[in-house]
Amino acid sequence: MIGRRTISLEPREVPLGGVRGMSVLRTLPNRDLPTVGAWCFLDRFGPGPVRMRVEPHPHIGLQTVTWPLVGDMRHRDSVDSDVTLKRGQLNLMTAGNGISHSEYSLGEEPIPLDALQLWVVLPEPARHGAGGFEQHTSLPTVAIPASSGSDATATVVLGEFAGIRSPATAHTPIVGAEIALPAGSRVTLPLDEAWEHAIVLVEGDVSIDSRPVVRNEMLYLGDTRSEVSVSSAEGALLFVLGGEPFEEGLVMWWNFAGRTHDEIAQARTDWETPDAASARFGHVVTHGAERIPAPELPNVRLKARRRRI
Fold first, then answer.
1. Less CB within 10 Å around the terminal CB: N or C of the chain?
2. Is the pTM of this model over 0.90?
3. What are 128-138's pLDDT values in tens digits?
4. What is the pLDDT of residues 225-253, one digit of tens each?
5. Do 266 and 226 contact (CB within 8 A), yes or no?
6. Coil, strand or helix: which one is 1?
7. Over the Cα atoms of the chain, what is R_g?
8. Cα atoms in the 13 Å half-sphere on the side-chain side of 133
9. In CATH, which of 3.40.50.2000, 2.60.120.10, 1.20.120.450, 3.30.450.20 is domain 141-243?
């Protein structure tokens, strides 16, 4: 058991550089908190005019969750998916033992773009399975009654929240939900006491259990909570992350999630070896030879990340 916490986690700016020419705000993994439930990664790219060109690159051992806020994106992958993603829609890609994909903004000029990119670490045996892709263009919503002001609306992106379940495939007990809180409202969000949770302020202003939170800040709540009170003066957009604490040792490096250094090193070798890359990660539909090469591994063995809070 982790117990209740009220810990602020601030994002750090990470330049992606290259032809993408963009930076992201990264909140997870945090040096003190590698996961919230099975959520192991959270980036926000935008808002701003961006010409995004993320060329084909590989993943293992995780699911990518792409949740757009502003603008449209094109997703292509090695299981023959080629789709456009819009606000209110979910792209969910399951890497399993290996998959590759690309992400582009639409058109050749910079466009307004803002999105959350999240990863979910896969448990046994899903992390050894085949890759797959799902796009969900309609997700369930539920009204959260207000004790003052207007009711909030929760969109259940992944897992289960307030008795409503997303149609997207989840491999662990988990929740990912967007909460739209009207101006002048106070609501109580229901939580599963057995799960740990965190709340990110995406836009607007919010107080969580009377504690003000700033934009892009994540407030980690720990577990043993059955509810949490949120209120907003001007209106807010929140994202709730949570789930059953992930107890397995997790080794993360670049785009890979594994359990040991050797697993990660083998995935890198496979991506950098043409025949092995083709066999394991496939070829991203409609792309040519363009790809993102893997960086060099550090000169030390990678170790599992452990929570410190």
1. N
2. yes
3. 999 999 999 99
4. 999 999 999 999 999 999 999 988 899 99
5. no
6. coil
7. 19
8. 20
9. 2.60.120.10
Q: Any idea what DSSP says for residue 190?
A: E
CA distances from 94 to 98, 127, 135, 143, 261 (A): 9, 9, 11, 30, 21
Tell me the C-alpha to C-alpha distance, in Å, between residue 159 and each of 37, 164, 260: 11, 8, 27
Q: Which residues face 120 on adjacent strands?
A: 39, 63
Report the percent of the chain where pLDDT is more than 90.
Answer: 91
Nearest alpha-carbon partner for 179 in 170, 193, 196, 191 = 191
Give, as one character, the DSSP assignment of residue 18: G
- Phi-psi category of residue 163: left, alpha or beta, with phi > 0 → left and psi -120 to 50 → alpha: left
- Amino acid found at 130: A
* Rounded Cα gap, residues 155 and 172, in angstroms: 19
Domain boundaries, the chain: 11-136, 141-243
What is the sign of the dihedral through the CA atoms of 282, 285, 291 and 292? negative
CATH number of 11-136: 2.60.120.10
pLDDT, residue 18, reads 45
Closest CA to 252 of 9, 93, 35: 35
Q: How many Cα neighbours within 13 Å face the side chain of 80?
A: 0
